[in-house]
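Incident log, support desk, overnight shift.

02:14 A customer reports that sequence design results differ from what the structure should imply. Their input is reproduced verbatim below. On-call engineer (initials T.W.) acknowledged and began investigating.
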């Protein structure tokens, strides 16, 4: 599987790259990073390519999917602390990844209009980060830890699965070994 990992230099992106490589060394991993200089060399060695494009640019994300012939993507951009008066770009990044995947899949499948059934299944497999609080649990609905993720989950469930075969990833708590001594690192 050829996988584009968006926000590969973040905590979850790094964990996804390591897990993909551990699961199957046959995976081709394309890392999308904001600043290549901050991407660890050990992880770069696990990747087949490092791409630097804006994660909010649908056209450039689609170009990366096309150029590297990706059949899957991991949108690993999670919560970044912001002040209440600031704007989070997470929903924009999320929508850009979904739009790019849907556009490329439609091109590959020959779909020209909404509702058309593809003759060949060329859907892009997408794992998208949402909040654990957005999911239903056996004991009831959990409160959202970061409400911005609920917006992302709402975007997902409104999307048809005809072009993008999506799954919501809902990590509970992301800890790095550098910031939490004694905690289990990803």
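02:41 Re-run completed on a clean worker. Output:
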């Amino acid at each position: 599987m050829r996988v584009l990992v968006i926000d590969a230099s973040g905590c979850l992106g790094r964990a996804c790259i390591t897990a993909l490589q551990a699961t199957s060394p046959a995976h081709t991993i394309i890392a999308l990073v904001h600043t290549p200089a901050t991407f660890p060399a050990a992880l770069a060695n696990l990747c087949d390519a490092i791409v630097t494009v804006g994660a909010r640019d649908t056209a450039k994300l689609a170009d990366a999917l096309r150029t590297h012939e990706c059949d899957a993507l991991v949108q690993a951009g999670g919560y970044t602390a912001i002040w209440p008066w600031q704007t989070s770009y997470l929903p924009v990044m999320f929508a850009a990844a979904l739009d790019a995947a849907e556009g490329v899949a439609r091109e590959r499948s020959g779909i020209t209009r909404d509702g058309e059934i593809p003759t060949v299944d060329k859907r892009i497999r997408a794992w998208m980060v949402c909040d654990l609080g957005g999911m239903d649990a056996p004991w009831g609905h959990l409160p959202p830890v970061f409400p911005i993720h609920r917006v992302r989950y709402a975007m997902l469930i409104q999307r048809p699965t005809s072009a993008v075969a999506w799954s919501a990833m809902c990590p509970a708590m992301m800890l790095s070994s550098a910031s939490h001594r004694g905690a289990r690192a990803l």
